[in-house]
Design a protein that fits this description.
Elements: H1 13-16, H2 32-35, H3 40-50, H4 53-60, H5 67-77, E1 79-81, E2 96-98, E3 101-103, E4 107-109, H6 115-118, H7 122-132, E5 136-139, H8 147-153, E6 159-163, H9 169-181, E7 186-190, H10 200-205, H11 215-223, H12 225-232, H13 249-253, H14 263-273, E8 277-282, H15 285-294, E9 298-301, H16 315-326, E10 331-335, H17 341-349, E11 354-357, H18 359-391, E12 404-406
Parallel strand pairs: 4-5, 4-11, 5-6, 6-7, 7-8, 8-9, 9-10, 10-11
Antiparallel strand pairs: 1-12, 2-3
Bound molecules: flavin mononucleotide (FMN).
Keywords: Flavoprotein, FMN, Oxidoreductase
GO molecular function: FMN binding; oxidoreductase activity, acting on CH-OH group of donors
Cofactor: FMN
């Protein structure tokens, strides 16, 4: 066979240029590194460049050997979608109803303490982004912004207040009243924290309450110049809830958590709050059943993102059993290790009404403040939409266990 002669020409810039993603440098203040983040993992990596190691570790870390957290991630990696094809998936509706109101996504911002340390825009900045997407924001009792401040800043947003029952029940009552006065819609009672978990990274970095920052941590902080500048030129980092107290933080710390809290306290809270109650940190079917009897509005299957008990139950594995037992009596949410839109859908498919995300938005905040949080919601939204289209499902309510299972 005679060899075919290839016609050659000189490379032409006109054909090469459109293939290259190069642009002239932009000086418009747009954070290009942030725009290059296409996964939550990318935001996680970018955040290591932008905040001191101790801050990153505080967010990224878990208790003891961090096995709860790594098992949650490992379980998400075993999720298997079972797609149906030849369906019209032009339009996909990611919206759902959470406690009787529409939410654009089945995603709730989890309560996370000390948020202004991650980025100076803090709770108000992050809640502003949540509100712009019509999502619920939960304010932690351990926040750097008080319930009253958030209420004034965002009077018309959907916001829940996360509470620990304190040893001093009168003080607990006062927090409940502050949340009510500030226009919070629901109370999240966190119950997986009778005592503080042992977070080894924080202890090593000296990020304890009160802080005992060592020299290494101190000098590492100094290397993140922009972060330092922002911390030093904005109001001091503090637990906003404790501002009114005159005692030193070391003494207050001893009263944060009450190891004596029981189901009776949940019933008591119901009477003093008078609105929706969500109990967060449920890790057994039995406890879920008791709370259904008490008549709470929702529970969160959660091990605090692996920050409390290590080697705890994996919430995603527990979910189907809890849904079967109490799913008709109250809403069931899940959190821990959600890093993608696929993870959100796995939980929804296995019966959750919604999920809470913690680190997924905090990585965004550390990487780029409010724009970073917005980026994390954008990433999750796009991933959810594509996964639903490829699975052949067009609405959240139809994304059932028919489409998802966990491989053994
Ligand atoms: C930095 C950080 C601080 C947290 N602070 C609180 C808190 O004050 N109260 C609470 O109930 N949960 C707290 N959590 C747990 C979250 O509400 C949520 O359960 C957890 O982050 C979910 O796991 P994920 O981060 O992997 O999404 C915190 C989590 C993180 C990462």
């Amino acid at each position: 066979m005679s060899a075919m002669k290839t016609h050659r020409q000189l490379p032409r810039w006109k054909t090469i240029k459109p293939l290259l993603g190069w642009h002239l440098p932009r000086f418009d203040g747009v954070d290009k590194k942030l725009l290059r983040c296409i996964t939550i993992q990318d935001l996680r990596e970018l955040s290591t460049q932008r905040v001191p190691k101790a801050v990153y570790d505080y967010v990224d870390g878990g208790a003891n050997e961090e096995i709860s957290l790594s098992r949650a991630r490992e379980t998400f990696s075993r999720v298997e979608f079972r797609p149906r094809v030849l369906r019209d998936v032009n339009e996909v509706d990611l919206g759902t109803t959470i406690l009787g109101k529409h939410s654009n996504l089945p995603i709730i911002f989890a309560p996370t303490g000390y948020t202004r340390m991650m980025h100076h825009s803090g709770e108000i900045g992050i809640a502003t982004v949540a509100t712009s997407h019509n999502l619920v924001y939960s304010l932690s009792t351990m926040g750097t912004t008080s319930a009253q401040e958030l209420g004034v800043a965002l009077p018309n947003s959907r916001k829940w207040f996360q509470l620990y029952v304190w040893r001093d029940r009168e003080q607990t009552k006062a927090f409940v009243k502050q949340a009510k006065d500030a226009g919070f819609e629901a109370l999240i009672l966190t119950v997986d924290t009778p005592v503080a978990g042992q977070r080894n990274r924080d202890i090593r970095n000296g990020l304890t309450v009160p802080p005992k920052i060592n020299t290494k941590t101190f000098f590492n902080m100094a290397t993140k110049v922009k972060w330092c500048f922002n911390v030093l030129t904005t109001p001091p980092l503090e637990f906003a809830t404790f501002r009114q107290f005159t005692k030193p933080l070391s003494e207050i710390a001893a009263t944060f958590f009450d190891p004596g809290v029981t189901f009776d306290d949940v019933s008591w809270l119901k009477t003093i709050w008078g609105g929706p109650i969500i109990v967060k940190g449920i890790q057994s079917v039995e406890d879920a059943k008791i709370l259904a009897k008490i008549g709470v509005d929702a529970i969160v299957l959660s091990n605090h993102g692996g920050r409390q008990l290590d080697c705890g139950v994996v919430p995603l594995e527990l979910l189907p059993e809890v849904v079967a037992a109490v799913g008709k009596k109250m809403e069931i949410y899940l959190d821990g290790g959600i890093m993608s839109g696929k993870d959100v859908l796995a939980a929804i498919g296995l019966g959750a009404d919604a999920v809470l995300i913690g680190r997924a938005y905090l990585y965004g905040a550390m990487a780029g403040g409010m724009a970073g949080v917005d980026r994390s919601i954008h990433i999750l939204t796009q991933e959810m939409k594509t996964t639903m289209q490829l699975t052949g499902v067009t609405s959240i309510k139809d994304f059932t266990s028919e489409y998802v299972r966990i491989r053994n």
